[in-house]
Specification:
With about 210 residues, this protein is of the alpha+beta class. Helix content is about 25%, strand content about 30%. The strands form two sheets. The protein has a seven-stranded antiparallel sheet with strand order 5-4-2-1-10-9-8, with no helix packed on it. A three-stranded antiparallel sheet has the order 3-6-7, with no helix packed on it.
Length: about 210
C-alpha cells in the first residue's frame, strides 16, 4: 500500500470517527462554550460561560416567542463577567432559575447543535444578530444576586442587574466530550501504527 493510499485511508477514518462522535453527542449531555463582548456597545466588559444542555429535551425554538425556566433546559450554567464598570463576578444557574427567565427562539430557523450556533441561518438575519429578526437568546436574573446580569436587548446582557455595561453574545459553541476526544485520538494512533507497520513491511519485502 502506497503512502498516499495510507494517508487517504487515515483521513477518511478520522473524518468518520469525528462524525460519529458528533452524532453520538447529539443524544447526550452537550457542553457549550459561551462568550459575550462589550465591544459592539462601546465598552470593555466581557464574559465567558459554560453551559451543559441535554439536547434530547430541547423544545422547538422556531416559534416567535419562547420563554422557559432555564433549569428546564440547562443542567448547569456558569457565567463570569470581567472588565465591566460594575457587576463583575461569576454567576450560576441559581441566579437565573425561575419561570420565563430564559428567552430563546430562532425566528423560524432550526439550529444545528453540533456546530457553532452564532451565525447559523434563520428565516431572516443570522442567529445572534441583534436587530430583532434572527430570534433571541437571553437570560434574566431572578434577583437573588442584584449584581447578576440580565437581558436588555436581543442576544445582549446588561451587567449589574441590567444597569451596567451591555455585552453581546458572540459565541455559543459545542465542545467535544472527553470520551469523544479519546476515541478520536485512539483512532488516529491506531492508523499511525498500522501505516508504520505497512511501510516497514514494504521496505523489508523490497530488500
Amino acid at each position: 500500500m502506497t503512502r498516499f493510499r495510507i494517508l487517504s485511508l487515515a483521513l477518511v477514518t478520522v473524518a468518520a470517527l469525528g462524525f460519529g462522535c458528533r452524532a453520538a453527542s447529539a443524544d447526550t449531555y452537550q457542553t457549550f462554550d459561551l462568550a459575550w463582548s462589550g465591544v459592539p456597545n462601546g465598552n470593555t466588559a466581557s464574559a465567558t460561560g459554560i453551559a451543559v444542555i441535554d439536547t434530547t429535551v430541547l423544545p422547538d425554538f422556531t416559534t416567535a416567542a419562547m420563554q422557559f425556566d432555564p433549569a428546564s433546559i440547562f443542567q448547569s450554567l456558569s457565567i463570569t463577567i470581567t472588565g465591566a464598570s460594575s457587576g463583575n463576578g461569576t454567576f450560576t444557574l441559581a441566579d437565573f432559575t425561575g419561570a420565563n427567565n430564559m428567552y430563546w427562539n430562532t425566528n423560524g430557523g432550526t439550529l444545528n447543535f453540533n456546530a457553532p450556533l452564532i451565525g447559523q441561518a434563520t428565516s431572516a438575519s443570522p442567529w445572534g444578530t441583534t436587530v430583532g429578526t434572527s430570534g433571541d437568546f437571553n437570560l434574566f436574573s431572578n434577583g437573588a444576586d442584584p449584581a447578576a446580569p440580565t437581558g436588555v436587548i436581543n442576544f445582549t446582557l446588561g451587567a449589574n442587574g441590567g444597569s451596567g455595561d451591555a455585552i453581546q453574545l458572540t459565541e455559543f459553541t459545542p465542545t467535544p466530550e472527553p470520551s469523544s476526544l479519546l476515541l478520536l485520538l485512539s483512532g488516529i494512533l491506531g492508523l499511525a501504527v498500522l501505516a508504520r507497520r505497512r511501510l516497514i513491511g514494504a521496505g523489508v519485502s523490497r530488500m
